[in-house]
Amino acid sequence: MPIILSVPVAPEHVPAPDWSPLPMSWTGWDGSVWPLVGAEARNPRLGRGVKGLHMPKFTVQKSSSLLIPGAEVEGYSIDEREVFWPVLFRAETPRDWLAEHGAFFDSFHPVKTGTWTVGSGVDARTLPLRGDFSGNHVFDRDPVLSLWTMVGLELEAPRPLWRGRAIKQRFENSEGVPFIDPAGSPPLHISRGASFAEAAVNNPGDEPAYMVHTMEGPLDQVVIGFGDALIDVPFPVPAGSVLVIDTDPSSRLATLDGVDVTRELGFQMFAPVPAKGATPLTLIADGGGAVTVEITPLYWRAF
Questions:
Q1: Which CATH number does the domain housing residue 155 bear?
Q2: Looking at the 3D structure of the chain, how many domains does it have?
Q3: Is the separation of the CB atoms in 299 and 162 below 8 Å?
Q4: From CA 286, how far away is CA 223, in angstroms rounded?
Q5: Which parts of the chain sit beneath pLDDT 50?
Q6: Which of 18, 79, 140, 219 maximizes the CB count within 10 A of its CB?
Q7: Which residues contact 57 (CB under 8 A, 6 or more apart)?
Q8: How many CB atoms lie within 10 A of CB 46?
Q9: Which of 160, 181, 197 is the last residue of a domain?
Q10: What's the predicted TM-score (pTM) here?
């Protein structure tokens, strides 16, 4: 009878799946922070039926003609986002219930926004929210006596897009090196009027996004942007000074060392960086300063 010898093989280790919930938290307009799920969430805890994590509401613009059957799709806009949280409050004593319920609802405001954060680390996305209270919440029973209640919280995101982690790129320009230094005359330097580098700005989001430019002097004759949307700074940035240009239409503000210089900047062409890809960046300047380009990706969903 043949005998077969074999070497035992250890079973492959398969890691157990991670069943921990997706991190979620609320940072109120007053700066207070509230975990909403997981072991850290005590009061409140999110229940079933959360609204606002998925796709926003799109309004599609169309045109039609008697000469052409159907409709021509011309574009779309995104409406403000409605958010609904079913939040559960539990406590061991009436004093605890009243204190935690009160502190949580004090973190909301009908005008000032707080921040809903979903995920963690580089994958976290945020959404600004304000209270949209209709004033019609009904308590079926006295919550202080039951020490348990579920509240349906209606919120609104005036800016409906989820914001990813800001992407920053820093470009530095070295000082010119002596080219000719004849005795008794000031040194001449090679001009660094060409671009800093072969640069590109990446926008991984679902929507176009505007850039924020931070320029650290000394810099002169600065031109920055992409395509035809170039910003030509008409004044120098002295050594030790910082010029910040926010191209977002909601701000469109330029400050030099914290002082508003938007008027001095003059008329400029601002445009958002296209979504889903890298866009070549034009960056031209003289001087030994640095430029930081920042973009915050905008997403349709929280994940």
A1: 2.40.30.200
A2: 2
A3: yes
A4: 10
A5: 176-195
A6: 219
A7: 78, 79, 81, 82, 160
A8: 19
A9: 160
A10: 0.83
